[in-house]
Amino acid sequence: MQDWGITVLFRGRNLLRLLGGLGVTLELSLISIALSILLGMLVGAAMTLRHPLPRFLCRLYLETIRIMPQLVLLFLCYFGLAKAFGLQISGEMASVIVFTFWGAGEMGDLVRGALTSIPVHQSESAAALGLTRAQAFRYVLAPQILRRLTPQAINLATRMVKTTSLVMLIGVIEVLKVGQQIIDASRYDMPQAAIWIYGVVFFLYFIICWPLSMLARRLERRWA
Amino acid sequence: MAENVLEVRNLVKRFDGHTVLNGLSFQVKEGEVLVIIGPSGCGKSTLLRCINGLEALDGGEILLRGERISGQKKKLHLVRQRIGMVFQNYELFPHMDVMANLLLGPTKALGRPKEEVIVEAERLLARVGLSDKAHALPRQLSGGQKQRAAIIRALLMHPEILLLDEITAALDPEMVHEVLNVVLGLARDGMTMAIVTHEMRFAEAVADRVIFMEHGGIVEEGAPEAFFAHPRTERARAFLTSFTFTREAKT
């Protein structure tokens, strides 16, 4: 058994520490996703306004987050703000800010797409039946918008879970960072641990993201 | 003399300064079937859309049983509950099965008890030959089946007048017949209707009165027998001729 790097996982509190790191990953992801969904609804609604100014601002915002690597945004928020304004925020806080900033833009674009994908005839048909605008939205438009939006929002959520691995670079101890610490600590007596520990990290991401991905695919197929 | 269900007075509608409806007036009486025909772009569909408030008017007024319904925004849904409309592309709600499509208006807009509406809906489904489709989704139906479902969805609101906007224009020829038969049945039952159509044989069969429109105005109006056999105006004659084909002798 001496050659099996996996034994490192069961030394001391290593497994618990790794799961704790996963907890941090999930916590950051969930907070960012929840905020992104809320703010994304507003951004998406603003993107469908008739006035050109909000549309232009949203466009600018969306292009910015699409062009900027998330890592640059993280550095900008964590180090940049501290250097420029003496604003010291925790790595966790910076992560939530950046992922929400990114996620709300992407979510906004998904909301915009879902809103505009419903043909105008559907609201006319609901109106012609004598439904009020609120009833038409509740019974006719909202269900169709949600069916369009939900699978895509789930896919965005999996992307956000994966991308949170970057936050270790601003000092947040999430699952990947814990894995690295475990590998570093056993570098001399168990050099082959790296592949096993990273393998476990891979597996942990997999059991979070794969079911989400499958769910999105099933919903997409059922509601197509 | 029967009461006017619908009265349109000097209706004007413009889109971006372009006049689509040029001050036209007509009435539809209780139990009457009015058929509106005319070339594409003459304003027929816009006319129907103005009647149930999907388009705002730029002039004139519309009365439903003598009560002015145009120019008000707040109670528009109450007006629309009294006017049924069926569209060219059915516009069933794709996320609901047929029965849910039928129940939505009567239960939510009118607040009628669901059980009562279901009984009526099943009777109407049977009448149009869709009894086995109550729990099918719209995408599982043929175009003709969808349009029959859309017609009874409008009927379940017990409208005082039914507006049909080119309801067979998107259908394959073999499905046109099944849909138009449903409408002929409604006409026999005394349903008040305003119908826009390009099916001339159907127009002749179903109409109590025909309006021929061109360039946003009424060119000719009359009984179907007279209109189709002997149109009075040159434009109506030319329009009707465009539906017939003659084979010239080979030389």
Order of helices and strands of chain A: HHHHHHHH
Number of strands of chain A: 0
Q: Which secondary-structure class do the elements of chain B indicate?
A: alpha/beta
Largest sheet of chain B: 6 strands, mixed
Percent helix of chain B: 25-40%
How many β-strands of chain B, per DSSP? 10
How far apart are the first and last residues' alpha carbons of chain A, in Å?
A: 51 Å
Instruction: Name the CATH homologous superfamily of chain A.
Output: MetI-like
Provide the CATH topology of chain A: MetI-like fold
Q: Tell me the Rg of chain A in angstroms.
A: 22 Å
Widest sheet of chain B: strand order?
6-7-8-3-9-10
Q: First CA to last CA of chain B: what distance? A: 57 Å
CATH architecture tag of chain A: Orthogonal Bundle
- Assembly type of the chains comes to heterodimer
Structure characterization notes:
- With 224 residues, chain A is mainly alpha-helical.
- Chain A has one domain (6-223): Orthogonal Bundle (MetI-like fold).
- Chain A has 8 helices and no strands.
- In chain A, helix 2 (52-67) crosses helix 4 (91-117).
- The radius of gyration of chain A is 22 Å and the shape is elongated.
- Chain A starts with 13 loop residues before the first helix and ends with a helix.
- The mean pLDDT of chain A is 92.
- Chain B is α/β, with parallel strands linked by helices.
- In chain B, 35% of the residues lie in helices and 25% in strands.
- In chain B, the strands form 2 sheets. Chain B has a 6-stranded mixed beta sheet, sandwiched between helices. Chain B has a 4-stranded antiparallel beta sheet with strand order 2-1-4-5, with helices on one face.
- In chain B, a hairpin with a 2-residue loop joins strand 4 (59-64) and strand 5 (67-68).
- Chain B is globular, with a radius of gyration of 19 Å.
- Chain B starts with a strand and ends in a 10-residue tail after the last helix.
- Chains A and B meet through helix 5 and helix 6 of A and helix 2, strand 6 and helix 3 of B.
